[in-house]
Design a protein that fits this description.
single chain, about 40% helix
């Protein structure tokens, strides 16, 4: 396949869905798509309608913006409000609410907060403004951690001292372990994250098949990728197998990206524990800067509150992130909590499950279960452009 249209072939997808129904034989099966990108593909393209009704797709903690606790947002805002600081971040972090507002609110109050497309953009700002402290708000799973690592290596090589990183990179495997150990949810298999696997490879998932007897299929992000991955999961279950398979072979290598892993290993190390929104503290689930790069560690350079902040009582992002409830089952979904007035992170991020349901609910079977807001095509197009 060479063109994107080939990955959206409705006739081929329909044939695979028919085969899924034949192989599953009406057996109720619950699969978790770990990555938020998969969630958006599922609801943007109406895949839930195509799959047989006995296949239930639930959403996992694969949105890095969504899993960040409010206390870390407050820490970021505290750094941003420090005199002389240029605080840089990806655009989807600007509106994530902390306990006393967001980075966008801090910017409106006078803090110098700027959104960038990569940490290298932040490093350029440090070169341009040598009399200012430039801080990069590093978030994301293993997908984005290598770009932070490369930027740190360059800062070290060029001797740039007015640049630092507020590191909030998290790792996917401990979160999956926590979900498997949770009594709240019974899963039959996992649609594995494609971009994370591009970096870490296939081996880290073997414990899921070996210790928990659950199949894993690493998937791409087009509709055909998702449907084929579900078919591969159902096929394993029908054959009484539990293995790690790679549907996204055009991108993911079994060994991952060795150079990216080496850069991360040199610049970062595992934290003993880290708080995840809705999941509590998970051991060895996040990264911090290694001692060699302590001079570029914003947590050591600035005073941060470091206070744990509880989520708003009305927000059920935690249950959504664990796959315990669907977004439309949250009491404030689509009413008090919308993309324009978000209460929780799942409604803010472009990868959040709540945002996917809100924006593409008209494509989903969920629209028939509850009174979901129906977004007009014109409004949807404006949001995608924006």
């Amino acid at each position: 396949m060479k063109f994107v249209d080939e990955y959206r072939d409705s006739a081929l997808i329909g044939r695979i869905a028919t085969e899924i129904a034949r192989r599953s034989r009406g057996r109720p099966l619950k699969f978790m798509e770990v990555c938020g990108g998969h969630t958006h593909t599922i609801y943007k393209h109406g895949i839930e309608d195509i799959l047989p009704p006995n296949i239930d797709m639930v959403h996992g903690p694969g949105c890095p913006v969504c899993v960040l606790p409010m206390g870390r947002i407050d820490d970021a805002i505290a750094i941003a409000r420090t005199d002389g600081v240029i605080f840089t971040t990806f655009g989807d972090m600007m509106r994530v609410p902390g306990s006393k507002g967001s980075l966008l609110d801090a910017k409106a109050d006078g803090a110098d907060v700027r959104f960038v497309y990569s940490p290298l953009d932040a490093l350029k700002l440090a070169n341009r403004y040598p009399d200012r402290e430039v801080v990069f708000f590093a978030i994301g799973f293993e997908t984005t951690a290598p770009s932070t690592a490369v930027t740190l290596l360059r800062a070290q090589a060029e001797g740039i001292k007015n640049f630092s990183v507020f590191c909030n990179h998290v790792t996917i495997i401990p979160a999956i372990k926590a979900i498997l150990d949770s009594p709240d949810l019974r899963l039959d298999g996992f649609v594995g994250p494609g971009h994370v696997s591009m970096v870490i490879g296939m081996r880290p998932y073997t414990f899921i098949a070996r210790n928990h007897a659950r199949p894993v299929v690493i998937a791409g992000f087009e509709p055909l990728d998702i449907v084929q991955s579900v078919y591969m999961l159902v096929k394993q279950i029908s054959e009484d197998r539990a293995e790690v398979e790679n549907q996204y072979a055009r991108v993911v290598r079994p060994e991952g990206n060795i150079k990216a892993l080496q850069a991360m290993a040199r610049t970062m190390e595992l934290r003993p524990f880290f708080e995840w929104r809705g999941m509590g503290f998970i051991t060895h689930s996040a990264l911090k800067l290694s001692p060699e790069f302590a001079a570029w560690d914003a947590e050591l350079r600035f005073e941060v509150p470091g206070i744990r902040v509880a989520d708003p009582k009305a927000c059920q992002c935690g249950e959504v992130l664990k796959g315990v409830i669907k977004p439309w089952e949250c009491k404030v979904f689509g009413t008090a909590c919308t993309p324009e007035t978000p209460i929780g992170t799942c409604m803010v991020s472009s990868e959040g499950a709540c945002a996917a349901y809100y924006n593409y609910g008209r494509f989903s079977k969920a629209a028939g279960r509850v009174n979901l807001p129906v977004v007009s095509p014109r409004t949807m197009a404006q949001r995608e452009v924006g």
